[in-house]
């Protein structure tokens, strides 16, 4: 006999807590009706830049049942990555906080596999898939729908208790659960993120022109960087945290407890000269398991050169 959905929901939230996820929320799997025209408009305006993959799987992005047959619930999870030491405050080149330690895809994917194993042990056969930024899932929208926060003016999910320095992950499963429901928007009239963005990438409330975003320029764009932004990078060579650093809700951020996210000891000590003279061997050692490997040694060198051009 299957357990009632209230009991199943309680089990899922208990597993999430045991595995170190800070927040867990549930939504009913269904078509994201409100998001469809927004996504279409964003793509039409070319705000995705050269991330052509964003044009693919339009229907799958909006409907989880096209990713998981018989999907009934989307379980949204948040995992803290806020570091004890902000390396971007030193007089050196900067990388986004999420990339200080081991690539989060590996760390969280392992936890999600463990999650599904425990789910089967406690509830029985549950069909579904796990996701961590690796498929056409509108994770921020699902997290907001399940009450984990709201979408800020910088388009990121903001949580009232702990801000926005979180990785998001999802379980899309064929199990009916109790829904949590969304929360209200607490940004109010604040425009700190919009005002602070040096490239004016935030073009509307919750709308980011990715082709102007420092994260896009330093990671996603594989071509030559456009000359217009070279004096606006503020020493960011991989990703950017400006719109998060200025957000008042991030005053509530607490340091993570994940050993895998600790930076390589060399990284914390590097000055600009070290970055500029970095060899491929040093790059491979310092960023061996890091998300920084996405931009490759040549990409990192390109970004440093661009800032100094």
Automatic annotation (TrEMBL):
Pathway(s) per entry: tRNA modification; tRNA-queuosine biosynthesis
Q: What is its EC number?
A: 1.17.99.6
Q: Where does tRNA bind?
A: 222
Look up the domain of life of the source: Bacteria
Chain sites annotated for binding cob(II)alamin: 61, 133, 154, 157, 168, 215, 240-241
Q: Which compartments is it annotated to reside in?
A: Cytoplasm
Q: Keyword Transferase, does the record have it? A: no
Q: Which residues bind [4Fe-4S] cluster 1?
A: 187, 190, 193, 247
Q: What is this protein called?
A: Epoxyqueuosine reductase
Which organism is the protein's source?
Answer: Marivirga tractuosa (strain ATCC 23168 / DSM 4126 / NBRC 15989 / NCIMB 1408 / VKM B-1430 / H-43) (Microscilla tractuosa)
């Amino acid at each position: 006999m299957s357990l009632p959905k209230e009991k199943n929901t309680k089990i899922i939230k208990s597993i999430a807590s045991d595995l170190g996820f800070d927040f867990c929320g549930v939504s009913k799997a269904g078509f994201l009706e409100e998001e469809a025209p927004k996504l279409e408009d964003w793509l039409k305006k070319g705000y995705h830049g050269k991330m052509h993959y964003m044009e693919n799987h339009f229907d799958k992005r909006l409907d989880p049942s096209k990713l998981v047959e018989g999907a009934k619930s989307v379980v949204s999870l948040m995992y803290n990555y806020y570091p004890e030491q902000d390396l971007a405050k030193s007089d050196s080149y900067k990388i986004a906080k999420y990339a200080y330690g081991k690539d989060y895809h590996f760390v969280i994917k392992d936890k999600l596999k463990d999650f599904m194993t425990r789910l089967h042990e406690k509830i029985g056969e549950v069909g579904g898939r796990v996701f961590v930024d690796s498929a056409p899932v509108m994770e921020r929208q699902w997290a907001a729908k399940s009450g984990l926060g709201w979408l800020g003016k910088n388009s990121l999910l903001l949580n009232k208790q702990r801000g926005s320095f979180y990785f998001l992950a999802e379980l899309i499963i064929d199990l009916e659960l109790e829904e949590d429901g969304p929360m209200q928007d607490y940004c109010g009239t604040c425009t700190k993120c919009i005002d602070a963005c040096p490239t004016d990438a935030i073009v509307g409330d919750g709308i980011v022109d990715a082709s102007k975003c420092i994260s896009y320029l330093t990671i996603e764009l594989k071509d030559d960087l456009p000359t217009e932004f070279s004096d606006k990078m503020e020493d960011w060579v991989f990703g950017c945290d400006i719109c998060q650093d200025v957000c008042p809700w991030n005053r509530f951020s607490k340091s993570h407890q994940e050993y895998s996210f600790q930076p390589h000891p060399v990284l914390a000590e590097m000055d600009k000269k070290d970055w500029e003279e970095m060899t491929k061997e040093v790059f491979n050692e310092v960023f061996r398991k890091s998300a920084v490997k996405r931009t490759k040694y040549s990409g990192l060198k390109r970004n440093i050169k661009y800032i100094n051009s």
